[in-house]
Every structure is written in structure tokens, then in C-alpha cells.
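Summary for the steering committee. The consortium agreed at its last meeting that each partner would contribute one worked example illustrating the joint modelling workflow. Our contribution is presented below. We chose a case with several input lines so that the handling of multiple components could be demonstrated. No manual editing was applied between input and output; the record is shown as generated.
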Amino acid sequence: METKRLVFVGVGGQGNLLASRLLGEAALAAGIPVVVSEIHGMAQRGGIVESAVLMGNVTSPIVSGAEADVLIGFEPIETLRAMGKCSADSLVITNLSPLPPFTVSIGQGKYPKVEEALELIQKKVKKKVIALNGSALAAEAGNPLSLNMVMLGALIGSGAVPITPEDMKKTIAASTKKAFLESNIKAFDLGMAGAR
Amino acid sequence: MHKLLTDAPGKKMLLLGNEAIARGALEAGLSFATCYPGTPSSEIPEQFLHISQETDLYFEYSTNEKVALEVGAGAAACGLRTMVTMKHVGLNVAADPLMTLAYVGVKGGMVIVNADDPSLFSSQNEQDNRYYARLSGLPMLEPTTVQEMKDATVAAFDLSEELGLPVILRTTTRLNHIRGGVELGKLPPRKTKGTFKKDPFNLVTVPAVSRKLHQVLLEKYDRALEKSEQWPYNQLTGKGKWGIVANGVSVNYVRDAVVDLGIADKVTLLKLGFSWPLPKALMTRFLKQVDKVLVVEELEPIMENELKALAQENGITIPIKGKGVGGLSRLFEYDPGLVRKSVAEYFGIDYKAPAMVEMSDLPPLPGRPPNLCAGCPHRATFYAVKQVFGNEAVYPTDIGCYTLGVLPPISMADYLICMGSSVSSGCGFAEGTDQKTVSFIGDSTFFHSGITGLVNAVHNNHKFTLVILDNGTTAMTGHQPHPGVQANLMGLDRTRVSIENVVRGCGVQDVHVVKPFKIKKTIEALQAARDYDGLSVVISDEFCPLFAKATKQFKRGKVFTVNQEKCKNHRDCINKLACPAMFVEEEKVRIDENMCIGCSVCAQVCPENAIVPVK
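What follows is the complete predicted structure of the assembly.
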């Protein structure tokens, strides 16, 4: 199959590592060669978390600058910051709900306007940017912590990876606690719908 | 049941590199494991901890890496299969036993997992521990994929027993933290008790014995070399005239580069998975069949230099290059694009890298450095210390979450070289300057290597203040136990060693134990410590909130809010504490009630008493 290089970026606590791991599990179950890479440094302490999923005929576990087929950003300015992973041909999927870092509070920087950040992202790539208010969709699904499921839904909904919604849901179901299953699947579906 | 105990040979599982190593150890019949946790190795012992609670595997978190290796050495001398895990700088701590354990050897197979950290994702240096194999004379294996991390671990135990030597399994962060499909093997039964046979003239390293043992080690080297020549993970692939040599994760970058550049038919790839002793015969065969050689290895030019020496011995004069070609530097980890570009450049292939989107028009984005958590007791302690000692005091710090005190607005970290250095370097600062010295060390780090420095400070009458930030756990690496924890909270049967008793036992006369969320009392204790003419120790005792939550010790106090009518916007709260639960909206400080844990420190700091509990 064609090689797919995906980069996930977000902030500690948003569940981006779990999203990339589940995508890896789904790929493995579908018989697609896959390797997942995690950069979590100080995730629990509010830092940036990045992960990569590479599928197909590729053995390298990370994605170099300009080489991402898909960038999935869980936070608008983190998407913007990670745009160096993209070329004009990359697909960008981004959450639009901001999570300002504490540096903004202590006056060490300004959080840009989300619309302007999105405009900048859109200007840089040829494909239509998939932008959704992920945190609102997660809340609508009944669990604010299901943002990662929304983003995973948007990715599968975009058709950018050879994994069917059914297979992805099976993997999600297999690794979700019963109490969260319904909201996780709902979040996934809302993300899928948001990608259309 | 722990997923790594899945008894289903042939099944494929998506495993983290570190899980694959743990699984490999189980498939090799591991019975004894020790470690001191250190990123990126920490997930290996984490598996062992849980597995030891379900099975008869023996596992312990030892006080430091030296102790871990020595405990493991004892078990291995009884014939048990033993694994000791640590990060690269941990091997520095364990270097003393390592060098002589190589002489004494092992009976049961012993694998020492050493995790290097190119790019310093979470370390104080990026030393290349392949040198330790050369320094100690111990065989070293370097896997390339997650599957190999498991398979090489199994093979490492057999190799260790065959040679009677510990084997070092070297990984890098990238390998520790990737996930890939791993085909499971069989889980054999475990031998949990061995027998120690007395053999002092081979096991007690007095000079006369060690002279003999050094010779034995060199003989073992020859046998290790034979093994290396036949090692399945030393592989020669392709028949081209362009030679590329790579190890570890770089092998993947080279394989992809060769495919991407369409030069597979032109290249011979020599993958070296047994990195000490290097397979000289195989390398010579390789050198004889290629016209030029590129060496792709992160960090130091070790294989490059060995190949050059080998070429010289064999009268081979082809170009051999590594460092300096394209982006191949001694600094930081490599990536696929960098390796592809370097391969293209060296072999003269026309290649245009994909064009990155324009990044120069991005607005300045606010940084997102890691920060002490909301309700972290370290923040309260730092605040109180600064009130007493000000900005001028010298603040040697140590390794743990509290190293984050280096960032503004706390800015209370002035010197750090390694675990334990805050205490001993504090001795030097106390003598070397008239500035006040306040050293910070965490509880786990104190046990790891702070105690010897403290004894030194007492004995040599050094006058400074040591603040022990006791949050009841090894927080930074993921809440592992240490000798001072209440192990019962984690469901473990371990005896607690009291830090206060240790400190008093070392002979410290001026000891204060404070609760850092009580700011006024903490400040009073610190003032007394400051005014004491001698060495003083302040133990700041409060749970890490993440650990408290995980162990269900957490009792959320009333969360706080800003009474906007009272607030005069001094912003002491946000400017001096920078708690992540605080944010500014419409020029007013607010508190995120979902993040606030009710530590009340900000309320005590506010000059207007405008921060109040939510009713």
C-alpha cells in the first residue's frame, strides 16, 4: 500500500497519544504494517505532546519536516506551530478550541486570534483544511475528554487512511471502559460528520 | 492478567519498545529484575512491577543504579536470569560495579538495559554509551525495530549465559518509545531460586584474583567476537557497490532512504546489531565488496572509526565517511529526511527534498513549556524560600519535577550537573562564596545520591540550607516508589525509611519539617534555618497531587476563586506563582475551578485577601 505519514500534536491531557495508539491498533488488526512513535517528555505538566503514525511500506518511526501526509492538531496554535511538518500537499485536520498556555497569563506572549490562525493554515496547503470545534463536539457527545475520539473520527471521515469506520470503532470499543463507550463512539461519529 | 503475560505464541500485539523488552525478558525466563527509573527506560520496570504482583517474578526499585546492578549481580551469581534497567546517565552511577562485574561475570544470564537519549528529550547530556561496552569489555546489542527489541532480549539472555558475562542491550529514546507489531513467543517457566557456590578465588576481586580475571575477560572477548560474526542481527543485504553501515534506529532511516531514492540495486547495507565486539570478518567482507562507504550512526563516530581502522589493517583505501556528510552530525537524533538527504549527497544522487510550507509569516506563538502542576507543593516551597532568601542566594538544584523551578517566574535553579549534585555542589558554593546557598533536592533523588553529600556537609562543617522537597513519590518518571514512600498506598509491602530520621542520623542539628501549603509557618522555619550558624535542613512534606489522586489519598479542598471586587490587580498570585489554574481574562485574573485543587497558596499570597474559597 501507499505510505502514509501522520503527525498528531496536542497538549498533555488531550489524549493524543491514545488516539495514535488506537490508530496503530486498528492498522495492525487490518494487517497494515504500522509503527507509532511517541514524544511525551513532560506531558502531564502541560507541555506539548507529539506522536506519529506511519503506515505501509516504511520502517522509519518518525516524520521529518515537510513530510506529513496528514497533520492532526488537537489545539489551534499547536497545529500552527507544527505546520513545519507539512508541505503544500498535506492534509490538515485541526481542533479550533484554544487551550492558552500559562505563559500567556504571565504576559510572556499573546494568544493569536483563532480565525487568523486558521486562515494562515488554510493559506499554506492546497487541500481543504478540516477544522472543527472539537471540544464542543466532545461536550455534545457527553464527555469533554473524548476530544481524541472526535479527532480520530475526523481523520477516518477524511478518508486519508485506509481504515474503515467500522474497524476503527471496533478498536475503540475493545479498549474503552464501558462507562465511556457510548460517548466515545458518539464523539467519533460527530468527528466523522465534521470532516465531511 | 497483565497483557505481557498473554500466553499465545504467534499472536501479534502492538507493543511499546519498552514493553517488547519486558516481554522478551519474560520469554527468556526472567526471574529477577531491578532498576532505578529513568526516562526513556521507565516503562520496562513498570511492567515488571505489575507482573511481579501477579506472578513469582522478583522485582524491586532499588535506591540507585549502582545498587540495582549490585543487587542484580548477587541474584545472577546464584544462577538466576536477571535484568537491570536504567537510562544512559544511570550507567555512570553503576559504572563502578559494571567494570568489575565484567571480570567476575555471571552464572545466570544478566541483561543490562541501557537507554541512551540522543536529542536530550529528558536528560542532562547525550553521552554515547556504546563507549561503555568498550570500557567494560561487555558485549552490547543494539536492536532496530520493536520486534527486534523483543527477540534481541531473548537472545541476549542466552548469550549472557553462554559467555558468563552480563550483556548490555542499548536502546535510544526513539526505540523505547515506538510501538509496533510484535509476534509473541513462548513463555517458559521461571526458576526463582538458585544456589550460590562459593568460589572466592574467582569472585572476590583482590588484585591477585583480578589479574587472572582480566585475562579471562579477554578470552571471553574472543568468544564474543565469534558470536558477533554469526549474530543474525548483523546483516549484509544487497549487492551494490555503494556501502552503507548503520545501527539502531538509523537502520530504518537508511532502508527507507534507499527505497525513496530508488537506489536499492546500487547499495549494500551492513546493519550492525551486535555493536561490541563488532564482527570484524563480516565488516572486512563488506569493505572488500563496495567502492565507498557511508556510516550512519547517531552521536559519536564509533563504527566509522572502527571501519577506518579495519580498512587500514586490510590495506583497503576506499573512502569511508560518516560525520560531516550532509546533516550527519555528532549532535542529536537523526530523522528520515536528514538521512535521505545525506545519502543522496554522498552518492551524488539528484534529489529534491519536499518543500516545507512557508513558516516565516507565523505570528510569534506563546511558548508552552512544561510547568509545575496546579497545586504542586514545590511551587509553595519555592515561593516561601524566595521570600526568605531572595534572588541573590545561590540555588543549586537537582533532578526531578522541581528542576522546572529554573523557569520564570520561579527562577530558582542556578546549578545542576547530575543526581545528588545539589547537596555536594552546595558544599562547594558554601565555601566558595559568601552568598547564601540553598540547595533543592527531591525525596527520591535524596535517597539515590543525596545522602553521601549530606554526610560530607555535616562532617566538613559546610554552612548552607538544604531543602528536601518530599512529595512522597518519584514524581518525574511516573510515580515509582522509593525508600521513603508509604508503599502500602501502592499496594506494596515495603518498609518506609524516614527522611527526617536519616537526616538526623547523619548528624544534622538544625532540622525543620514543614507543610508547604502553610506559607507563614514555612517561612518562619526557613528564617530559622537561614539564621542558624551551620548546616540546616528543611523537609517540605506534601504529596504530589497527581500521586495523591492516583493513590486515592487526594482530598480536594475547597476550590478558590477571585473576588473581583476586592482584587486590585497586584497580580502577585499569577506573577509569583504562575499556577496553571490561573488565567487572565479581560485584564483580570481568574481561576479555573476545574484545575484548582484547593491548596490555598494563592489565597495566602494575595495582599488584598481577594482570593477566597468558592462557597
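The first strand of chain A starts at residue 4 and ends at 11. Chain A touches chain B through 58 residues (CB under 8 Å).
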